[in-house]
Amino acid sequence: QVQLVESGGGLVQAGGSLRLSCAASGRIFSANTMGWYRQAPGKQRELVAAITNGGSTNYADSVKGRFTISRDNAKNTVYLEMNSLKPEDTAVYYCKISSSGYLRDYWGQGTQVTVSS
To answer: Torsion over CA of 52, 54, 56 and 57, rounded to 10 degrees?
Structure first.
C-alpha cells in the first residue's frame, strides 16, 4: 500500500505563485513516476506534469514555461512550482505515483487551487 499526502493549495490572485508538495509513504519502489494531475468542475482529469525517478519530465502544453515539477527521491516527495497562475488553472490538483511494481496507480486526496482574476 502507498499513501500520498498533498499540501500547498490555496487561493491566489492571477499572476501569483503557489508550490504544491506531495509526500509518498508505504511501499515505494525506487523506479517510479510521480505526477500531478488536475480536475476542474465539469472537466476530465488531465495531466499537468510528471517526473521519473531519474528526473525526466513531461508537461502539459498549457503549463510549459510556467510550472516546474521536481522531486526529492530521498524524501519520496514531489513538488509543483506554479508561477504566473491564471484563472483557468483553478482546479483540484492530485498527485499520483506509478510503478511497474504496483498492481495499480495510487492517488492522493487532492488539494484545491483557486486563481482569482
So the answer is: 40
For the chain, the maximum distance between any two Cα atoms, rounded to a whole number of angstroms, is 43
Rounded Cα distance, 109 and 104, in Å: 16
Query: How is residue 6 written as a grid cell?
Result: 498533498
At which residue does the C-alpha cell 480536475 appear? 39
CA atoms within 13 A on the CB side of 105: 12
Q: What confidence tens digit (pLDDT) does each residue in 13-63 have?
A: 999 999 999 999 999 998 899 999 999 999 999 999 999 999 999 999 999
Q: Which residues contact 49 (CB under 8 A, 6 or more apart)?
A: 35, 36, 57, 58, 59, 60, 63, 67, 68, 69, 80
| Per-residue CA distances from 23 to 14, 29, 88 (Å) | 27, 14, 26
